[in-house]
Amino acid sequence: MPIDPRFSYFLSQRNTSVLNDSKIWKTLLPLKRNPSGKDSQRITDTSISYGDYFSAVRSFLEKNRFNLLLSAIDHHINRKVNQEDIEEIQTYLVKHGEFYHPARIVTIIDGSSLSFVLNVAVSATGQDCIKREYKLLQRLNKDFPFSFLPEVYGQGKVYAKENFEINMLLGEWFVGFNEFHISYDKTDGRKKIIVWDSIKGNFFLSQTRSVELYRQSAMILSCFYNPETFEQISLWHHASGDFVLRLRSNKLDVKLITVRQYSSMFKNTNGIENGVRDAELILEAMLVFLLNLSIRMRLDRIDGVGPIVWSDDIAVKATLEGFFEALTLKHPISLLSDPIAPCFRKHLLSCSESDVFDLSKGIVDAYNPLAPEVPIIKQNLETHVEVLYNAMQNL
């Protein structure tokens, strides 16, 4: 009979071991990312304890004699691994997100560790999201020749207390990558990007590296934009920690760890599919995508959980450069007379500053008026367009 690996559980931020007879084991899991003391203990239909969480994770990994986890390990190390080869499975609860309570799953094999991410959806919203995201990540990794998104190995559900359903998704863990957010540097009071490095300690990025971060983030989203179907990754947000970065050997790399929605920017594309699509529409839709991208790229929350904040102007040129870098990687479009990048550049330069402002205002007017970022965007939109337009002219 196969020997089961040892299981151990930790709170990632404090690297604190959680035992099944400890106080934290019976404490309720927070329902949102930055709960108040009252919210964290409020009992609802979706309330489970830390112990319920860790027990559900174990049940999910143990299903079918660890089949899903063993398959993921085989994929990474290119050799067959059996259940008895796994010495230990460590579960680190990473954070309490808006949709998931993700865990880092560390498997110990022959004294070496291999990490995976396990997204855990407790709320009804999270459960709907996780099923959709699994299919989207599979599709985008198959349809696009990039390695910006995590691979996914499988998803399923288990039941906690009294048949309470919890959905989970096992995927690739980007080793050495960390979440980042805009923060205030106490040494000079300026807004900067802080990297949450749990191993070496948090640190601020230099302005040069911040520019590179925005450039790569914009490039990644633009790579997945389909200029012929108008499909795009949406519902992403820096405040949710959707992008992560790694700084190694003086080289900065960025990844996107989640895709909640991938759809056309137009609600009704029937007319387009019946032949209305033309070069002008393709270029104008591309402009809408770029303007929306330039706005969303500037939004974050202070330290990830504080008030909505607007980034410095350095994000604007970086976004433009990342967008054009992605255009050079796309296949030619038969409806366009030239390659995509120079064709769009010509279209961009034909726009006046008032054209750019009116279109940007129209984009913002289409946002949910109750969204907390809308007042911040409107307050900064005119200056943003001025900076963006100047960057366009200096391409």
Characterization of this structure:
The protein has eleven helices and 16 strands. It has helices at 23-26, 37-40, 50-77, 124-143, 207-223, 270-276, 279-296, 314-327, 340-349, 353-365, 374-393, and strands spanning 6-11, 16-17, 86-93, 103-109, 112-121, 152-160, 164-172, 178-184, 191-195, 203-204, 231-234, 243-248, 251-256, 261-264, 299-301, 308-310. It has a seven-stranded mixed β-sheet with strand order 2-1-3-4-5-7-6, sandwiched between helices. It has a five-stranded antiparallel β-sheet with strand order 10-9-8-12-13, covered by helices on one side. The longest helix is centred in the N-terminal third of the chain and has 28 residues, at 50-77.
In short:
The chain is an alpha+beta fold. Helix content is 39%, strand content 23%. The protein contains 11 helices and 16 strands.
Looking across the biggest beta sheet, what order are the strands in? Answer: 2-1-3-4-5-7-6
Average pLDDT reading: 91
**Straight-line distance between termini:** 66 Å
Which consecutive residue ranges, at least 5 long each, have pLDDT under 50? 36-45, 269-275
Using only C-alpha atoms, the radius of gyration works out to: 23 Å
Number of helices: 11
Number of strands: 16
State the main characteristics.
16 strands, 395 residues, 2 domains, 7-stranded mixed sheet, alpha+beta, Phosphorylase Kinase, domain 1
Give the secondary structure arrangement, pairings included.
Layout: E1 6-11, E2 16-17, H1 23-26, H2 37-40, H3 50-77, E3 86-93, E4 103-109, E5 112-121, H4 124-143, E6 152-160, E7 164-172, E8 178-184, E9 191-195, E10 203-204, H5 207-223, E11 231-234, E12 243-248, E13 251-256, E14 261-264, H6 270-276, H7 279-296, E15 299-301, E16 308-310, H8 314-327, H9 340-349, H10 353-365, H11 374-393
Parallel strand pairs: 1-3
Antiparallel strand pairs: 1-2, 3-4, 4-5, 5-7, 6-7, 8-9, 8-12, 9-10, 11-14, 12-13, 15-16
